[in-house]
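Components:
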Amino acid sequence: MPTFFEGRQLVIPGDLIAEGEYIAGENAYAEGNKIYASRIGMVEYENKKVNVVALRAFYIPRVEDMVIGTIVEVGFNGWIVDINAPYEALLRASDVLSRPFKPQKDELSQVLEIGDLVVAKIVAYDRSHNPQLAVDEPGLGKITRGQIVKITPTKIPRLIGRKGSMISMIKQETGCQIILGLNGVVLITGKNLEDEELAIMAIHKIEEESHTSGLTDRVAQMLKEEKVKREEIKNESEN
Amino acid sequence: MSQKTEKLIDKKGLRLDGRKPDELRPIKIEVGVLSNADGSAYIEHGKNKILAAVFGPKELHPKHLALPDRMVLRCRYHMAPFSVQERKSPAPSRREIELSKVIRESLEPSIFLEYYPRTGIDVFVEVLQADGGTRCASITAASLALADAGIPMRDLVVACAAGKVDDTIVLDLMDTEDKMGTADVPAALMPNLNAITLLQMDGILTLEEFEKALNLTLEGCRKIYAMQKEALRAKYVSVKEVEE
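Structure:
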């Protein structure tokens, strides 16, 4: 039962990864007893399972995922939301209004207009139906302030860090609230514009250098240095 | 075209550009050259210069084209007005529409179309400069662009042509050889699965000649595959190096 690549080695679609009694995991497929890669990524062995951690992928909806989307259409009994995925998501009016929805009374565009941003959770999705959203939990619903940053969806886990180490560090250093949409959209709300800018800077750095080690420490250091620099500029302009 | 019958192969057995019968033109491939597309690739195959870009998968418009059980792959092969010696009208010609279909059909078997039903992928191939064998170079580039877009694929697709020129079977025809020669056999291959996804023949060949041409083409495909693989890895190899 040979394997042709070591763990964390780069593979491209069509590369023969292993032969024998293996199971094709994420981004891999089996043809007879041969396991091939189906995306560019890094090989990962998990007992008998062969996974490829994709370097290039798009967001595929999953039930229970928290996402940030943009309203693109106001319909008769709900909204259509762009969630940065191959499928458009539906948000039903009766799930947003906390009372029964009456089409003759309620004007949907007064609740959510085209272009509005919402934090929502995916409650249903399968092959034959577009994802359905809900905003029935605390923290979900229309976004009223803050800034949006879009990153590659595959890099969200890196932004969270091990047990949330990276994201909690950024929150602490910048004093911003950060909501991660698993579809690669990040919402940042801080006390002022400068704090938000700092957090955005950190996120861009993480996206660019996501594959390097010791990143959490370097981002922390960058944030500290940047804060000192800004303080100096402020003092100078006051004098 | 000049009227005099030039010798396409000289006494030493070399071709017009000095190549041996089984020699490819120089090839340069680059992946991820366009930042606005989801995936892209650029190929220089001899004097051919071709850009390929991929968008998707995304909700398909117009919606009635969507299929309930699989993705729809759409291809547009287009030659720039300045890609040939005489200005080419930018409107899609009969030939371009046909080549779009040929490229689409040679890429389709390599993609897991059943993964994301009701969606569509758009592939745009833009020929900036043409010198024979653009369909093959287009397939090679488009397949790389698909991989770069993160679309799940069974294998890369690589294409190459062989033909008959002055009674000799030669690999990788250029424009003059294609026009003055007797036959042309383009083929596309999924090298790891050893599956042919495109096979055409234009001209007249005996069965033996055809077999020889096909084997030569497949050999050429494998050589190009090595370069294709290298180009795709090159974009991500920096990622690996930093990690180790």
